[in-house]
Amino acid sequence: METINGAMVGREREQEVLSDFVTAPGGRALVLRGDAGVGKSALLDHVADLATGGLHKVIRAAGVEAESELPYAGLHQFLYPLQSSIDELDDVHRGVFDGVFGRSQGTPPSVMTLGIAVLDLLSLAASQQPLLLILDDGQWLDTSSTEVCGFVGRRLTGTSVKLLVGLRSEVPSGFDTAALPELPVTTLSERASEQLLDIHHPGLDPRIRRLVLEEAQGNPLALLELPPHVRGNRTARTSEQLFGYAGTPLPLRLQHVYGRRIESLGQAVRAELLRGALDGVGSGTAADRTRGTRYRMVDADAAAACGLLDIDPVSGEFVFRHPLVRSTVVHKATPNERRAAHAALAQVHRDDMERRATHLAAATVDPDEEVAAALEAAAESATRRGGSVAAVAWLTRAAELSETPHGRSRRLGSAAYIAGHSGRLDQARQLVREGAGTDTDGSPDSVVASGYVAFFEDGDIRSSQRQVFAAIESMRDRGVREPDEVLTRLIDLLLAIAQYGSDGMWWRRVHELLESLGDAVPSKSRIYEDAWGDVVLRGTGVHERVERAFADVRSLEPWDVIRLAAAAYHVDTLSQYRPYLQRAVDREIETGAVADAMTMLHQIMLDQIAVGEWDEAERTGQQALELTTTHKHALFVHHTHAYLGWLAALRGQVEHARALQATVDAWARPRGVGFLTQIADAVGTTAALAEGDYEAAYLHAIGITPPGTFTPYAHQAPRTLLDLVEAALHTGRTEQARNHAQAAHHARLPDISPRLALITYGALAMTATDTTEADTMYHRAQTHPAAARFPYELARIHLAHGIRQRHTHGRKAAHHSLTLAAETFERLGATTWAERARTELHAAGATAQSPTAPLTALTWQERRIADLAASGLTNKEIGDRMHLSPRTVSSHLYRVFPKLGITTRAALRDALSKIPGEQNV
Fold first, then answer.
1. Rounded distance, CA 27 to CA 269, Å?
2. What is the Cα 429 distance to its own chain's centre?
3. Would you say the pTM of this structure is higher than 0.70?
4. CA 730 to chain centroid
5. Residue 696's CB: how many other CB atoms inside 10 A?
6. Cβ neighbours of residue 717 under 8 Å, at least 6 residues apart?
7. What is the pLDDT of residues 488-547, one digit of tens each?
8. What is the DSSP letter of 317?
9. What does the DSSP 8-state code read for residue 70?
C-alpha cells in the first residue's frame, strides 16, 4: 500500500532484490512472506511494473479463500491467458489439461504429470516473450494448484519463466513445504513509518500522529487506514478507547476499522459487497480477470468513496482495497444475509457445476433433494479431477440435506468410501457412526463404509467378510439384477477381503454368490474375481481382459486403476501399466488419497523387484512404510513389511528378512490374513535359498503348496514353483521336483503369464533326465520374449543351466551361462547368489568378469529407452510410446551414456549390440 501516488517508502532492500530477480537471466521462483498489510501486494505491483518495462509478459493470479476447496481453481487463473498456447501442444499434453479442467472424462493426472505439462506449456509461451507469473494471497490457493505451482517453481532453471508468490505469514499454506527461496517482508522502520504517514496524512494532530504510529507498529496498511478512524473518534487517547479492546492482533484492529465503514453503508451496498466477497472478487491490481462468470459488483460507489473498494484500472470493475476488507464484509454479515448472497451466487454460476453446488449448499438450511443431488454430482466431478477432500465435504453436506433416510445413508456411505480410499480412516469411521444414527443402520451403504474401515484399519477379515457377504445377499434377495453403484462397491470389497483371506472355502462361496447375481456383476469385477482368487484355475485370458479394460484408462476411477493393476500383477504384466501408477501416485498422495497411494506404491515396488530395479524398490518400500505408519493402516503396514522382507531375502540379507517375516506372520496368522502369511512363507523360502539351506527352503515351500499340485486360492503356490523345485533337487527329492514341474506344465501355467512360462520351462529343464529335453527347455526359457523382464528368475535358470553344462558338455560350454548369471546377480545386488555363480564359474575355469558388465547395469526402463533412441526415435516419440515426458526420457539417457561408456546418441547402437541376445529387451 505504500506505493500510492507512485511513492515506495522504506523498501530499498526489497526493491534491490526484486530488481535483480526480474533482470537475472533464466527462470527462477521467489516467495514474499509477511504479515497482513505489510506491503506484499505493493511489492508485487512494483515487480509487475518492472517486468512490463523489461518486455516480460505478466500473468497475475490471486488465491481466494472462498475457492480454497475447488480443485485447480487457482491454476486456472494462470493458464486461462495461455489458451492459445495450450492449443499448440500435442494431443497428450492437451489431454492432461482437458482432464484437469473437466473438459473430458478420465483419470486425473498426477502432480508430476500435470507439472511437466505446465512446464512445457510455460516454456512454449515464454519462447516468444519472457514470462512472469505473479500470485498474491498464495495461502488461499487450493491444494491441487499449490502442489503444481510448487513442482513447477522448483524446476524453472533453464527456462524464461519466473514465478513470484506472496504469502501471509500467519496462515499455513502448502507453499510452506515447497522449498522455494523466500524474501521476508517485514514492517517498516520507525523513520520510514513516519515518512509514509506524513506523505499520505500530512498535518496530523501530534496526539493522533503518535497514537497511529504506536498502533500501526510499522504496518503500512495500518498507517494508511488508521488516521481517518482516529480522527473520527477525537476523545480516544488509548488503544482500548479507540477500538473497544486492547492487546488484540493488528489484523483484528484493522477489521474493526473496516467494520465501522461497512456499518455506515446502506443495506443494498452492503449486500453487493457481500456477494462480491463470497464469490472471491479480487483485491487491488491482482484481481482475477480470467473467469467471465465472477460476480461483478455494481452501484457500490459509496463503498469506494469510504476506502473499501478500488476500481481496477484495466477492467474498470470494483475490487476490494485489501483482502482484509473482503473478510470483514463476510464477518459483519448475519447468517440470513450470507445465505441470501449465496443463493444469488448459485444463480450466477448456474453453468458451473462445482461453484453452483458450493453456493447452494451454503444457501440451504432445510433438507432439499435437488441441492443434495447437485452436491453429489459436484463430488463426483471433484473425485475424477483428484479432489477427494472436496468430494468428502460435499457428500457429507449432501447427506445433511437429503430428504430421506435412505438418501442420507447412501451419501454418507459414499463419503466414507472416498474418505477410506483417502486414508482418512478416522473421518470414515465418524461418517459410519453418523450413518448408523439413522433408521437405515445396516444398510448396504453403511456396510461398504464400515466394512472398509474394519478391514483396512486392522485386517478384520472374518467379521467384515460375513457382514459384506450378507449385505450382497440382501440386495440380491430384494431383486437387484442390474449393475448398481453400491452393489459394485460391496462386490469389489468382498473380493478384496477374499483375496487377503486366501481361504478356498470362502472363495467358493464368493463364486457361488456372484454367479447368482448374473449380469449385476460388472465386467471389471469379473476380472478381479478371476485374477485375485486362483490364477491356476481361472487366470487364462485375464491378461487380455485387463489390457482391454486399460484401453480406455481415462474413464477409470483411481480405484479401478489400482484393482486392474492388482489383476495385472497376478498374471505378471504389471510393467505395462506401471506408467499409469507412477503418474497417479503423486496425485493421490498430494490430494490426500493416501490409501490408494499405499496400494499403488506396493504395486510399483512389486514391478521394480520383478524387473530388477531393487534399489528403487527399496526406496519405494520405505516410502510406503512411512505413509502406512503415519496413517495407522495396520494392514498396509504389515503388507509393506512383507514386501520389504521378500526384497531383503532376495538380496541375501537373511537376518533382516527373517525378522520382518516373523513380524508379519505374528500379526497376520491370528487374523486369518492368508495373503500375508503366504508371503511370509515365501520370504522364509527365499531367505533359505539365499544362504543355501535347501532343507529349510523345502519345508517353507511345501508350507505354501505340496509338490505335484498347486493349493487352490494360494496365490504364492504358482509363484514359488522354481523355489520348490530347486529346494527339492538340492535335497535329493528328484521325484517330487519332477512331479511339481510336470504339474505346472499340465496346469498350462505358461498360458497364464510370461513369468510362469519362464519358470515352468526352467523347472522342466532342471528336472529333465534326458539331456536333449533339458537343452530344449533351457533354450525355450532363455529365449522367451519376456525373459529379460524377470532378470532374477532368468539368472537362476542360467546358473542351473551352466552347472548342468559343466557336467554334461564340459567346462568351457558352461562359461556363457555362468557369466550371464554372475553378472546379473551382481547387478541386482543378490550377493549370495552372485557368490554362488562366481564359485561355479571358477570351477568351470573362468572368471566372473566380462566386458558386458557395464551394459547389464542398465535398468529395464533405461534399456528400453536406449533401444528406442538407437532406432532413431526422438525423445518425444519415445515418451509417447512409454507414457513419459520428453524431459524424463532425456534424464534417463543422461544416465545411460556413462553406463555404456559413450558420449553421443550416435554411439548407442554399437554399445547396445554388445549385450548378449538373452538380455535384449
1. 44
2. 23
3. no
4. 46
5. 17
6. 536, 704, 705, 710, 711
7. 989 999 999 999 999 999 999 999 999 999 999 999 999 999 999 999 999 999 999 999
8. -
9. S
